[in-house]
Design brief:
heterodimer, A: 120 residues, alpha+beta, hypothetical protein PF0899 fold, 3-stranded mixed beta sheet, 3-stranded antiparallel beta sheet, 2 helices, 6 strands, B: 227 residues, alpha/beta, Rossmann fold, 7-stranded parallel beta sheet, 8 helices, 37% helix
Chain lengths: 120, 227
């Protein structure tokens, strides 16, 4: 169970960005690959817990699941896997260990609150 | 004044800090010409026995050392010290995996130029270590015959973070009716082309082929460094 330390890293990263830009964070957008080694549900509950007492308290973590995509050498194309128990091209059956996508664990964006002048 | 939500793009790897340290470690290892192997497995699959055997067999002709991670106790370090190789225990407290910074700290005081091989035994866990690069050249994932042939199907992520699989405790294969073919096929299902060694730390079965593989990888590393 390393989701708590991952959640803390996410918060730290968001805090840094927020301080650097002088903004307040409403939500953190995260891309989470199936093969990232991180469990989404555990991460969400850890996030809430780890936010307490930080400037991120009350913010939301929005997770985009990123499925595994392999490169099939026979089809010469990228193919989404049907199952992580079988790394074969779903079209032609060729085995492939070339993972194009699915290991992501990245903060892609921050949703921020900012003060803007009222339109006149 | 009013407030309105806005999106700002960030695009940063959450484990960036770990990756930066791991990259620096890898550069140091390569500059010193030391080949670094890490081991991951579930608790009790025979990592320490396998590593003890590896150190003992390599030691007459190679300069070897090991770092060994556990939540608590120095037991593994004491076991490995029997091989006469320099060994340091990393106790992680409650942390379920090693991180690059822990490896970096544990290496303080060691001259990497004095080594051919450095082994890093991770905490026994088939989930969490998969996310953390430790700067190693080769990651071994161990499964023992007593764990069942379907371990790769249950933990595809760790098999995809490792480079080579080791099937350990082969001396017990018959007793537990282990099917090598099924285990091998399951590994290939989650990681096509993965190299697999089957070994027994007790009888020494399979150790020679694995040691030859390591020697070839070390030679390759030094060749690349020299050209």
């Amino acid at each position: 169970m390393h989701e708590l330390s991952i959640a803390m890293s996410i918060i730290e990263l968001a805090e840094e960005e927020a301080a650097h830009r002088g903004v307040q964070v409403e939500a953190v957008h995260l891309r989470l690959g199936t093969l990232s080694g991180v469990g989404k549900d555990a991460l969400l509950s850890c996030y809430e817990m780890a936010c307490e007492g930080t400037v991120l308290q009350g913010s939301r973590l929005l997770v985009e699941d990123v499925p595994v995509v392999i490169f099939c050498a026979t089809c010469r194309a990228q193919r989404p896997l049907n199952s992580v128990q079988l790394f074969r091209c779903p079209e032609c059956g060729t085995p492939s260990a070339e993972i194009v996508q699915g290991k992501e664990l990245e903060v892609v964006a921050l949703e921020i609150k900012e003060c803007v002048p009222n339109p006149v | 004044m009013r407030t309105e939500p806005r999106l700002i793009e960030v695009r940063k790897n959450v484990l960036k800090q770990n990756d930066v340290i791991a990259r620096a470690l890898r550069e140091r290892f390569h500059a010193a010409g030391v080949f670094v192997v890490s081991l991951v497995s579930s608790p009790g699959s025979g990592k320490t026995a396998f590593l003890e055997n590896t150190l003992t067999l390599l030691r007459p002709n190679n300069r070897v050392a090991a770092l060994v991670g556990d939540l608590a106790t120095e037991n593994d370090a004491q076991r490995l010290a029997r091989s006469q190789a320099p060994v340091k225990q990393i106790t992680t407290g409650t942390l379920c995996h090693l991180e690059a910074a822990m490896v970096q700290t544990a290496l303080e005081g060691w001259d990497l130029n004095d080594l051919d091989f450095l082994f890093v035994e991770n905490v026994g866990n088939l989930v969490c270590p998969s996310s953390y690069d430790l700067g190693e050249d080769l990651r071994l994932v161990l499964i023992s015959v007593t764990e069942g042939e379907d371990k790769p199907l249950k933990y595809p992520t760790i098999f995809n973070s490792a480079d080579v699989a080791i099937v350990s405790k082969m001396d017990l294969a018959a007793a537990v009716e282990f099917s090598w073919e099924t285990a091998y096929n399951n590994i290939q299902a989650v990681r096509p082309g993965m190299k697999v060694f089957r070994v027994s730390s007790k009888t020494g079965e399979g150790m020679q082929a694995y040691l030859e593989f390591l020697a070839a990888r070390l030679a390759e590393l030094r060749h690349t460094a020299s050209v």
